[in-house]
């Protein structure tokens, strides 16, 4: 069935007559929420936690972005993220969506920075920056065969319209959102993005925030860690204390760098059959370089926010490091200790000429590494002063 709207635009009811009937029944029970913005966020949260949006059912957005794990993957037993199917794993560890709303669209910034004099790409979402907006980001996992495994947009939209929050979907977006499958699917993504922009996902309620407001005190170890973070260890060069709302640091400059992260031999993605991983054990994740088709960007991945970092093991794009202590120690001794070689040896971020006190040769003692970890643990949301 098809027709034209008063504007002359073609309307396709993509076999939606039974869906409309269902929604008409459901909408009679609809309750009014406080405002349109609240409606959209509430709808987005409902979709975000809906385990019926995968095929087979059982996986929601929240399965890999759990609030209890800093909106990252709660399963630390695997180095990378599990999909809806038993064998399906991604090549990467799911990044937190916490504070992702503050990331700009991907762009090249030629501004020289400490230790990064050549400039760099900044922004985007995912480890490789391939999505510019939360709306784009929200759509991709729903249709990824190794994630939520829906064959097409229709499966997603129909699941939403069969849900108990379907009346709210119609109330927020109106019947016009059902004019085409593309428009309906984009509405689903818009709602998810609204939730990801909400205060619930970016609450700024860590011990660090209360300390910044003068409402609590840091321990001696945490204070030493803060001094190291902003001083000797130079962590703030990449995990910036600038750029957040109301002076709240986001602990990232949103840049992309190749830190020389080793390959993870325990990554189960290497075991996937050729349709998903034709290179087998020889697979190399090129990161931003693959997105831009630019060898000069090979091996570069987005610098994550450190907010809630203590809740989000394992670490780096391939989950190669299991603990924060291991990550800090790698940053400390990459160039002077016996670490495995980089997964992508070109474009590794190094100080030229090599100098003590730079990334990979920071000269931190074991106690100083412990102090930095203690400070990083103050970045966990939900602190009660």
Descriptive notes:
This protein has 385 residues and is mainly alpha-helical. It has one domain: Cytochrome Bc1 Complex, Chain D, domain 2. 30% of the residues lie in helices and 4% in strands. The strands form three sheets. Strands 1-2 form a two-stranded antiparallel sheet. Strands 3-4 form a two-stranded antiparallel sheet. Strand 1 and strand 2 form a beta hairpin. The termini are far apart. The relative contact order is 0.15. Residues 1-34 have low confidence and may be disordered. One of its GO terms (molecular function) is cytochrome-c peroxidase activity. One of its GO terms (cellular component) is cell envelope. Pfam families: CCP_MauG.
Defining traits:
385 residues; mainly alpha; Cytochrome Bc1 Complex, Chain D, domain 2; two-stranded antiparallel ribbon; 12 helices; 30% helix; globular; disordered N terminus
Write the layout of secondary structure elements.
Blueprint: E1 2-4, E2 10-12, H1 17-27, H2 36-48, H3 61-64, E3 107-109, E4 120-122, H4 134-143, H5 153-161, H6 166-173, H7 181-196, H8 207-212, H9 220-230, E5 256-257, H10 288-292, E6 301-302, H11 324-333, H12 366-376
Antiparallel strand pairs: 1-2, 3-4, 5-6
Helix pairs in contact: 1-6, 2-7, 4-7, 5-7, 9-12, 11-12
Organism: Abyssobacteria bacterium (strain SURF_5)
Pfam family, one: CCP_MauG
GO molecular function: cytochrome-c peroxidase activity; electron transfer activity; heme binding; metal ion binding
């Amino acid at each position: 069935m098809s027709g034209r709207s008063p504007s002359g635009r073609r309307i396709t009811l993509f076999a939606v007559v039974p869906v409309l009937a269902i929604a008409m029944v459901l909408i009679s029970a609809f309750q009014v929420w406080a405002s349109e913005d609240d409606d959209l966020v509430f709808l987005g949260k409902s979709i975000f936690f809906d385990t019926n949006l995968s095929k087979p059912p059982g996986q929601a957005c929240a399965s890999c972005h759990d609030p209890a794990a800093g909106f990252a993957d709660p399963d630390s037993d695997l180095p990378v993220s599990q999909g809806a199917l038993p064998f399906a794993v991604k090549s990467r560890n799911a990044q937190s969506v916490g504070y992702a709303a503050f990331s700009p669209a991907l762009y090249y910034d030629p501004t020289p920075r400490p230790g990064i004099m050549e400039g760099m790409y900044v922004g985007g979402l995912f480890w490789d920056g391939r999505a510019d907006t939360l709306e784009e980001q929200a759509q991709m996992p729903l249709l990824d065969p190794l994630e939520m495994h829906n064959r097409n947009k229709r499966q997603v939209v129909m699941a939403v319209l069969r849900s108990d929050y379907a009346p709210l979907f119609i109330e927020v977006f109106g019947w016009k959102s059902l004019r085409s499958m593309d428009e309906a699917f984009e509405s689903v993504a818009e709602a998810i993005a609204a939730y990801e922009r909400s205060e619930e996902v970016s609450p700024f309620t860590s011990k660090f925030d209360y300390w910044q407001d003068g409402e609590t005190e840091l321990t001696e170890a945490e204070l030493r860690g803060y001094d190291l973070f902003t001083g000797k260890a130079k962590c703030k060069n990449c995990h910036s204390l600038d750029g957040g709302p109301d002076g709240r640091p986001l602990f990232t400059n949103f840049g992309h760098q190749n830190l020389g992260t080793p390959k993870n031999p325990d990554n189960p993605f290497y075991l996937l059959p050729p349709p998903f991983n034709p290179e087998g054990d020889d697979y190399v994740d090129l990161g931003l370089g693959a997105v831009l088709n630019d060898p000069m960007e090979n091996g570069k991945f987005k610098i994550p926010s450190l907010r809630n970092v203590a809740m989000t093991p394992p670490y780096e794009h391939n989950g190669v490091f299991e603990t924060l202590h291991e990550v800090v120690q790698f940053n400390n001794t990459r160039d002077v200790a016996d670490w495995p070689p980089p997964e992508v040896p070109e474009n590794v971020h190094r100080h030229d000429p090599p100098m003590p006190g730079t990334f990979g040769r920071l000269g931190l003692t074991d106690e100083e590494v412990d102090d930095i970890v203690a400070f990083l643990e103050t970045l966990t949301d939900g602190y009660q002063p």
